[in-house]
Fold:
Amino acid sequence: MSEDIVVLKNISKSYGGIHALHDVSLSIREGEIHALVGENGAGKSTLIKVLTGAIHRDSGEIYVAGEPQTLDNPIQSRQLGISVIYQEVNLFPELPVMYNLFFSQEPVRGRVGWLEKKKIREMAGDLLSQFNVGIDPMAPLSKLGLGQKRIIEILKAISLDARFLIMDEATTGMSRSEIATLFDIVRELRKNHVTVLYISHHLEEVFELADRVTVLRDGSLIDTVEIGSTSVDELSRAIAGREVEEVRMSNDVSDDAEIALDVADLMVAKLQEPVSFEVRKGEILGITGVIGSGKTEIARALFGADRMLSGSVSVFGEQQKSLTPQKAKNLGIALVPEERKTQGTFPLLSIANNVIMVNIKRALSGRIFISPRKRQNVSDEAIKSCQIVPKNASAVVRELSGGNQQKVVIAKWLAARPKIIILDEPTRGIDVGAKAEIRKLIVELAEQGVSILYLTSEFKEVLGICNRVIVLKKGAVAGTLDRQDAKLDRIVALALG
Structure:
């Protein structure tokens, strides 16, 4: 049995009387891959910040390699070999890969401190080769994909001699091949006795990679178990504290139902061939494919955020020669974008102000001034429709959990009462409980007659919920499946060939 490299004893942290962590005790073994799971707001982020010295615990003890530690600041944690990889990439996009790998520890010569570029390039090449990563050390980081950038972050941590690596939702936005490379690197780290704390909402990743898993709920530790002694269902129940209902579409859509959205020979960036499809009133049409297959570009073009290269779009029988976001909104089209933090919300504003951004007319008193009472009514309606927590319209969006931030994006558009909703990765980066709530809401909207275009790179997400599924492969339609034919193996076969 390996020794414990990090031990937490009775860790607590509160904000204004609310427990973010409550009496959490946890031991993590040297050289293991230890998964940490829980709903948004369960305390995972707070635990990371305590371990990295970003915030101070209120009480409790922390031991690293058997020695008690204060962890007063991030510098101290890095000196102890603790490093963290966040969802957002923290690198220098205009610098070459090799400088990003060894930033702040570059070999220099002379009294002036000239960079030894040749040596840096050799060091970077050796590190990349060690983990079979086929990236040019001289390539500008900005030219790499998100998954490649995240791999560079991990290798940078290794170059800093990290012995305890925290990975927070590391596979977000990565392709399947990039995820496979990432997992190979993580397993290689385990062989070299590097400990990995792996935080993810994707339970299939946890079962594929982890040795043990710890569940947090409402700031408290629920259980730590060997991965072989539990199941996805058991873990889901532990995370949510309840049975997680499997959401399925209940109604079929008649071929005689009104066509809400008619897309003919649409050509946008990243597509290799034009796409055509119809979405009928009350129908959920899924579009899936690996990252980079063109689904996001389709979504943005249909909302007028990006230009259509060719093709036509008709909304309830009326052909649109061109679209802009304002015109799309006026036609009853809403877009819940892939990037909620940068495109879907104003994180520093309140829930109410986010909701009002697309519903100003409903809050006006006269032609110019916003009525505080109407503003409150509209935002309260939005909060109730999507069960946003907390039920406080003045709460700042940045301070909400990821699942509730996503609900804000959806809620503000529901308040605009759209007829067509385009959802791009609506459940990305949120926990199993919030994911089930959002899927249930989507089904309810379809049953009320709203037409929905559901785009996702997670193949399982379209199962059961969509009336039909279009599968993209390398920028072209690989096939269209009815609900009864939309099985995971068929989708995978079409998307990956």
The chain has two domains: 4-240, 259-496. The chain has 17 helices and 24 strands. The two ends are 43 Å apart (CA to CA).
